[in-house]
Amino acid sequence: MSPTEPTNPGDDPALLTLQSEMDKRFDPSTYEQVWQRRWAAAGVFAVEAAADRPSFCIMIPPPNVTGKLHIGHALQSTLQDLLVRWHRMRGENALWLPGTDHAGIATQLMVERQLEKEGTSRKAIGRAAFLERTWEWKREYHGNIRTQLDLLGASCDWTRERFTLDEGLSQAVREAFVRLYREGLITRGEYMVNWSPVLETAVSDLEVETKTVQGKLYHVSYLIEGEPAEGGERITVATTRPETMLGDMAVAFHPEDERYAHLLGKAAILPLIGRRLPFVPDEMVDREFGTGLVKITPFHDPNDFEVAKRHGLAGISVIDKTGRMTAEAGADFAGLTREDARTKVVERLRALGHLVKVEEHTHNVGHSQRGGEAIEPLVSTQWFCDVSGMAGQALAAVQDGRLRLVPDTWDKTWEHWLGSIRPWCISRQLWWGHQIPAWYTADGRTIVALDEEEAVRLAGVAGAEELTRDPDVLDTWFSSALWPFSTLGWPEQTADLRTFYPTSVLITAHDILFFWVARMVMAGLHFTGEVPFSAVHLTGLVRDADGVKMSKTKGNVLDPADLITEYGADAVRFTLASLDSPGRDIPLNPEQIAGYRAFGNKIWNATRFALARIPEGAQVRVSLDDFRGADLAAPERWILSRLSATAAEVNAKFESFRFDEACNRLYHFFWGELCDGYIELAKPALLGTDADRKLRPRIGDVLLTVLDRALRMLHPVMPFLTEEVWQRLPGREAIHADTICLAPYPQADLAWIDEGVEGQMAALFETVTRVRALLAETGRERKVGLWTASPVLEAFLGQQQALFATLCRLEVLEISSRAWPTGDGGPEDLVLGIGIKILGAKRGGDEAAERQKLLKEIEKLDAEIERTLAQLADESFLAKAPGPVVEKRRAALAQMEDRRSSLRSSLVG
RNA sequence: AGGCCCGUAGCUCAGUUGGUUAGAGCGCUACGUUGACAUCGUAGAGGUCAGCGGUUCAAGUCCGCUCGGGCCUACCA
After folding, report:
1. Greatest Cα-to-Cα distance within chain A, rounded to the nearest angstrom
2. Per-residue CA distances from A249 to A81, A268, A560 (Å)
3. Nucleotide with smallest C1' distance to residue A656 CA
4. Omega before A281 cis (within 30°)?
5. Which of the residue ranges A243-257, A306-320, A630-644, A683-697 would you say has the lowest mean pLDDT?
6. What is the value of pTM for the model shown?
7. What letter does residue A431 receive in the DSSP assignment?
């Protein structure tokens, strides 16, 4: 179902409420996208700049415009949406700004592949035509991202959607480039860069992945200059890349290596070529590795490049930008691929007797992150950005707390990377991207300007035709680095920028911490003087049920759209949020999603039950104050107490990014406390006679009020279901919100937290459990006696007698202030101050097994009592442990002893 | 080579500044269904918290070492 389909009645904002009966069947597909359209049509998520409320803003990590959302996006989007919805409900001016990234290399590759299928190529059709094709491609796929975010229930403000190549962002990119250039932080120069021979572009250090590969170490002997070919002194150098020897210019040894000190001033003769290679002493050489001699290939190895610089050595390029040998490699090798050249060089060396030996050797080789091909270190002219100063600022921001990494285990990684940062190669030999705003004059000057007009002026030439624009584009991450403020209109001081910048939180996976997060922080601090966000929540990577990384080749990829179709978006969201525990990857098991779909079913049916069974006229109460002074029974006071405690906890957990714990709490509150607890306690009154109801005043109002608040608390995680169900609660109109999206998020009402009633109810629940367990063992006679020495508890039990009998389905329930006589054969137990006696019951079932079980339990108690006695006899414990801890132990001891004696009595019978 | 994370029930994971007899979901066992929900309810089984040592009155939690797994960073030709 397309969310942009205009004909659906859901598009009419006047129809925001719905009144139909709840279907018995829980089926998220019947309402999820209906709500997404209604919210969009009503403009629920569009915000105004400069509102008189606190702002909250999250920038989406822009996905590739032509891409598809994967499960990791679903996780991040869920968490972002959860936070935005939570803040929106707290009355803040909450903006979640969506957008997409042009993703230079990835997108260009896709279009190139398409061209290839058509039998043509990028170079054949030319730059202008290629870019037009790519824009077409972008327009075609652009809607996908929104469709998928809609499926998930994302509450983005689509009126503010941005794209990294749109006009505003392009202007921001040019502005940033020009400023950095004029500050001397961007320079152009000839350096060694990581070159992808497949993509034919430079890539940054980050885009290179080192892989351990099994290779060979070739030992090659070189003749020393002036020595006779027969019997003269030779040296042996070791190399993993024999083909690069064609570009060798020297041989290096460690300055303190006595084995080679005598070679200083001499030279070796490069086999096959005959080039004279002077010996140079350099600290870089590891004396222990190989022979302690290193061949120096200035233009094809980063280390050698540095060595050559130190020693004033020239270099030659023997490998070209497509990975083939150049003319300078010699006529025998020119045109060969790197691999073929290696084979040929080795053959020649062997034939000429220069190959001493070949060893197996595992070593690390840089590979392109994108295509997987081996990266070639090449010397070329590129644009570089000196980020060392910005890195220092970004480092300081984390150290002084202006920027918080969550979890903070990333702090060290942050320090390590920023502390050892090197210049960033920002130019790419691609077409799809932000073309570098630099022009060259005929007389060799470089003009950097915001646009062509300015360039002409600065160059002092007659017109643009006298200038040549640099053909390269910028690294995609250069524009991404500006995302938090370029999306808000920077460099203009727009109302949006003033209202929403700095943004609040960034949520993204930890694998782009350096690619993106660090660069945004550096750029933000540099251009705006402020951290672009005050907290970064770094998620783990989503893996499959067995913890294995998802990949197309393994076929274990889970598509969020499929999961949403099968389980509903709310279940997918709840699952992802509840799995987001800090600092670890996320194993996603569809069974778990099914479990949370069942939770949705529970919510659906609990609401259905409430609506069907509440007394006539019951209403949601906007304020809990409405219940003050009302003579509420213990279950009512208990659930209101639990509600407040839960609200306090959930808000605190959201605040600290513990979405997993918040979800856990919500789940157990709704299912365990509201459904299994309160609704079961409410049934006798709701389903019984008027007399039953009189004992439980306001029960319907309390149930609806708790339900209303529970739904509102759940809304950020399960937006669709909560809206669908909440709309039907009688009395919710008094909240004055047309949609639950804008209803206030429940806050803790500490006045309603009642430890007394919680303790009593805990005793009741525990006693019910024990009675059920005992009755399950003792056959059918359902006569039970309870006793307690506490007058308060006795009064409480008296009030709850009928309820208690119903919950345990008892025929007879007697309550006493004294222990029941032992020795009549009835089993007994004692928990939380309440003694239980099965009256006049004969044991049923397997008596021996029951005695066995009792004995085992008594044994456990014996051990624990002994341990506690020893602890309480230990003077250092009494002296050093805090008072409350000691008191707790004493109380525990008393309880255990009581329980033991009760179980012993039971055993005697 | 350096850094980081993880090792808790059959499985996947929680366990906040050390403080009762270590929890959840799924799975498993038994019982239960005309009454919101079998996408359910009730009761239950299941753990020497990877191992060793240390600090402490007290360690799953803090420290050290070992073993096992994962990730990141790095210019050993």
Report:
1. 119
2. 59, 10, 55
3. B16
4. no
5. A683-697
6. 0.91
7. S
